[in-house]
Design goal:
heterodimer, A: about 375 residues, alpha/beta, nine-stranded mixed β-sheet, 12 helices, 11 strands, B: three-stranded antiparallel β-sheet, about 40% strand
Chain lengths: ~375, ~130
């Protein structure tokens, strides 16, 4: 890392609500597209990384893609908080020599199959059992219990969250890759959408449930000149988890109105990249729910605590703002492929091929709360 | 409702609830309190633990009105994150308050533990104390 590994290729399927095919097929389609984009063949790939939650087994994907020999594989636990962890795993494997070229993939029928927004049959993690018995069943409820104190401490309202959603949907509206392409919303539309957890989250504050597959190829920076696409440098990668925390929420920190894991993440990314908030040209910030963008803007130092609502209202995160955020429409507007689709948008912004391309992009922050990347030119 | 999963490390907690005692795990070696339970003390590494009965007093740190996520909400409940006076935090329910007002002001409210049955399971819950 720190510039010695690159993203060489990216690939994906279409994003839909009913793919009509198996999750393994989505993984294979996205994987093959990423390998071809990198100018490689499946036989060149000798590493695989995905989420523990992914249903496509490594051996099944190898067989489907025609991969021959894999020397390294790993998975990241829990959910979307580990979106960027996958790339860190791949970069570490490549930088150490454990693998030459690693395929990172995530594919699911999350709308037509098992829906993440619905209550699971049993709590998926041990700690959640201490909450679900008392009525915290869905992700929206789990996060709202944490968001509520932030709102109360800083005088933030659901309308403030709506201002983020309007921006995300505006970006999606001009991105043909987005599910909500050509479907922008107004703040009034947001305020008319039904409550999910009143007075915290409305329907339009929630990420989508999507079907689709996303993949990318990580390899060594010294191979960049042989590749057909502009190589995108992994300038920094980091994970940030705390012993008394959760997965993109924290009920146990002394100050509930902060996101201490993201603050830890930001410190690491700035230290490893030698950059700071002022150096970032585009920020891709994971949003399972719109308020998490507010916490991250503050945690990474783009604005002060409690000021994200003003930062957003003042237009800073728009395409022509000081810090364009989620230029693809994010997980609310483009699709929810567990955050991996936001990494692809970061790659496109560095390459100069995004639908909503920002004029000059030297550094992109991609963050999923507890894992993050800084991408730049190789 | 989702019944609690009772496993080896936390059976003491639900055994305590059955006799209306709110128990907090305590390290025998360094006396650090911990909740949710864990098999080892994260401060000193000791595997020896017992349980201290909580005063049952605390304050609400944050809360939501939890409506049934995909059905009409006759079973709405107020979910609270409570910091007990002993310093540990528990997720629980606030009772003896309206269960239909998402705009009430419960932050920092003083509460005390109580025990109520819900769908056949006895749960530790909290009710307001002092000025209502």
């Amino acid at each position: 890392m720190n510039g010695d590994t690159i993203v060489a290729g990216i690939g994906q399927t279409e994003f839909s609500k009913d793919s009509g095919r198996s999750e393994l097929q989505l993984a294979a389609e996205a994987g093959r597209a990423a390998i071809v984009d990198a100018g490689l063949s499946p036989a060149d790939i000798d590493g695989l990384v995905t989420f523990t939650l992914d249903s496509s087994g490594e051996l099944d994907l190898m067989r489907a893609l025609g991969m021959q020999e894999v020397r390294y594989w790993s998975r990241t636990p829990y959910g979307g908080a580990g979106a960027c962890t996958t790339v860190q795993h791949a970069a570490i494997a490549v930088a150490s020599g454990a693998a030459n070229a690693v395929l990172v993939y995530r594919a699911f029928n999350e709308r037509s199959g098992r829906r993440f927004g619905q209550p699971p049959p049993r709590p998926p993690a041990r700690t959640l059992d201490w909450y679900s018995t008392f009525g915290i069943r869905t992700p929206a409820q789990m996060y709202s219990l944490w968001f509520r104190r932030y709102m109360d401490d800083y005088g933030v309202t659901n309308e403030d969250f709506g201002r983020y959603t309007v921006v995300a949907r505006r970006h999606a509206a001009t991105n043909p890759n987005a599910w909500f392409y050509e479907r922008p919303i107004t703040l009034d539309d947001h305020q008319q959408s039904r409550w999910i957890v009143e007075p915290v989250l409305r329907l339009l504050d929630c990420c989508q449930e999507s079907d689709g597959g996303v993949a990318l190829v990580v390899t060594r920076a010294d191979r960049a000149r042989d590749l057909p696409q502009p190589a995108v440098s992994i300038e920094a990668a980091a994970d940030a988890h705390l012993g008394h925390g959760g997965v993109m929420y924290n009920y146990y920190h002394p100050d509930l109105a902060t996101f201490p894991e993201a603050e830890f993440l930001g410190r690491q990314l700035w230290e490893r990249s030698g950059l700071g908030p002022d150096d970032i040209d585009v920020a891709m910030l994971y949003e399972n729910f719109s308020p998490i963008v507010f916490y991250q803007l503050e945690a990474f130092g783009f604005c002060k605590r409690g000021e994200a609502k003003d930062f957003i209202a003042d237009g800073n995160i728009d395409l022509d703002g000081a810090l364009p955020v989620n230029t693809n429409g994010g997980l609310l507007g483009e699709a929810y492929i567990h955050g991996l689709n936001n990494i692809l948008e970061g790659v496109r912004q560095v390459r100069g091929t995004a639908a909503n391309q920002i004029a000059r992009v030297d550094h992109v922050l991609v963050a999923a709360g507890q894992s993050g990347l800084v991408l730049g030119h190789a | 409702m989702v019944d609690p999963i009772i496993q080896h490390d936390d059976r003491y907690f639900w055994d305590g609830i059955a006799v209306h005692r709110l128990l907090i795990q305590r390290c025998v070696a360094c006396h650090t309190l911990r909740h949710p339970p864990a098999p080892m003390c994260g401060v000193c590494g000791s595997l020896e633990w017992d349980a201290q009965e909580s005063s049952g007093r605390g304050r609400v740190l944050t809360w939501i009105l939890s409506r049934h996520p995909n059905a009409p909400d006759e079973n709405a409940r107020v979910v609270v994150l409570v910091e007990l006076d002993e310093g540990v935090r528990v997720v629980s329910n606030l009772v003896d308050v309206p269960n239909d007002d998402p705009y009430a002001e419960y932050d920092d409210m003083a509460v005390a533990v109580d025990y109520r049955e819900r769908d056949g399971v006895l749960l530790p819950v909290f009710h307001p104390v002092g000025k209502l």
